[in-house]
């Protein structure tokens, strides 16, 4: 069992790829802002003592309004200005956390991560872990000309999902090393393994734990909400 856990809830979207004027993390799914779906899952987990929410400067005021309106206005929840990239937002979030032995990374654009997913990461014996699901389709490599160069063995591949949990000091060290090398990453399990050679346990995720990026994803999300959340499968 881990304690003294901080959570970085990435909420840097401004709505460009979803083609909405509202920041992605504030779009409604099942009548509720995406950001709130995630906060509801973790609010009763006592080991998570602090939550940092990096978001774009132009979205800070709207995000704060939503937090206040839904009752997440206590000292536990802090909004900070995000970086120009996801990688920079995580680095800034780490700097904003203090007194934590572990840190959970999650994305507001994944509203269907279940409370059970967070609890498994809190309770797992491994110090560093991420959700992941098998890839059910063929993945191929292409060369620089855009031609197929070979198929990958999908039995050795996973689709990495969030949330993820890491030792705070280890992740901070990996970010520092990546900064010195001028490297940026799109997720932190790969960063940790690449920069420090640290083992990261894959914990079975769920096909419904989608990341909402494009307008079509919002249609899928509403279907998931009606079929699984209202139906009681999302706990």
From TrEMBL:
Alphabetized GO MF terms: 2-C-methyl-D-erythritol 4-phosphate cytidylyltransferase activity
SUPFAM superfamilies: Nucleotide-diphospho-sugar transferases
Keyword presence, Transferase: yes
Pfam families the UniProt entry points to: IspD
GO BP, sorted A to Z: isoprenoid biosynthetic process
UniProtKB keywords: Nucleotidyltransferase, Transferase
Residues spanning the signal sequence: none
Family annotation (NCBIfam families): ispD
Name of the protein in question: 2-C-methyl-D-erythritol 4-phosphate cytidylyltransferase
Taxonomic classification: Bacteria, Bacillati, Actinomycetota, Coriobacteriia, Eggerthellales
């Amino acid at each position: 069992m881990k304690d003294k856990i901080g959570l970085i809830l990435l909420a840097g979207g401004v709505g460009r790829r979803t083609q909405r004027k509202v920041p992605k993390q504030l779009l409604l799914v099942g009548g509720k802002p995406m950001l709130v779906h995630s906060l509801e899952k973790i609010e009763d987990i006592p080991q998570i003592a602090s939550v940092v929410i990096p978001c774009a400067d132009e979205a800070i005021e709207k995000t704060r309004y939503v937090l206040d309106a839904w009752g997440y206005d206590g000292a536990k929840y802090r909004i900070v200005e995000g970086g120009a990239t996801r990688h920079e937002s995580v680095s800034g979030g780490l700097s904003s956390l203090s007194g934590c032995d572990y840190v959970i990374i999650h994305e507001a654009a994944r509203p269907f991560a279940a409370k059970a997913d967070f609890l498994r990461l809190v309770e797992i014996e491994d110090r560093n872990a991420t959700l992941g699901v098998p890839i059910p389709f063929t993945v191929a490599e292409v060369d620089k000309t855009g031609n197929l160069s070979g198929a990958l063995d999908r039995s050795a591949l996973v689709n990495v999902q969030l949330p993820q949990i890491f030792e705070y000091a280890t992740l901070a060290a990996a970010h520092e090393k990546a900064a010195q090398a001028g490297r940026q990453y799109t997720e932190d399990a790969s960063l940790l393994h690449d920069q420090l050679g640290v083992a990261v346990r894959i914990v079975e995720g769920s096909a419904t734990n989608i990341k909402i990026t494009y307008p079509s994803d919002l249609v899928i999300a509403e279907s998931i909400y009606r079929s699984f959340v209202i139906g009681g499968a999302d706990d």
